[in-house]
Write a structure and sequence with these properties.
mainly alpha; two-stranded antiparallel sheet; 72% helix
């Protein structure tokens, strides 16, 4: 197979569900590290949290395929396991990333302002959601997206 370029991911509006689970696992790991290091290594924890905020923001506002986790999946995992047999709509995942971005931005602000308890709680919520997604494939943010879309759709 030729070299994998940055465009090696599927179409922008479709996503490999395995990549989503990989990204969720990586997110859970990074944010769990934030919770474990916020006391003894606060600058490191805040840097990790800020980097995850950036990943969430890029994924939510640009493309699921351009996140660091998607690129790692595309370059390291995908060549070993092959192409997906099915793709999913990327919009629910992007909405979930937006929710993660909002929660982690609030957590980062909380840590900066000294509201560590509230900030830890927000990070813990995102860790839990990401871990559930990684382990089971069920995405809370995606479910919220679908629920809101259903409610906004005219009865047909």
């Amino acid at each position: 197979m030729g070299g994998l370029g940055i465009t090696s991911c599927p179409l922008r509006d479709q996503v490999d569900p395995r990549a989503l689970r990989f990204a969720a696992g990586a997110t859970a790991f990074v944010l769990a590290a934030v919770l474990l290091t916020i006391g003894p290594a606060r600058p490191l924890a805040l840097g990790l949290l800020a980097s995850q905020v950036a990943v969430f923001g890029l994924t939510a506002f640009v493309s699921v395929q351009w996140s660091v986790w998607a690129q790692l999946f595309a370059r390291v995992v995908w060549p070993r396991i092959g192409a997906a047999t099915r793709l999913e709509d990327a919009r629910p995942a992007r909405f979930a990333q937006l929710l993660g971005c909002v929660l982690t931005v609030a957590a980062l602000g909380g840590f900066i302002l000294g509201a560590d308890g509230a900030a830890r709680g927000l990070v813990a919520v995102v860790v839990a959601a990401a871990a559930v997604d990684a382990a089971t494939g069920w995405c809370a943010g995606c479910a919220i997206y679908r629920l809101v879309r259903r409610r906004r759709s005219p009865a047909g």
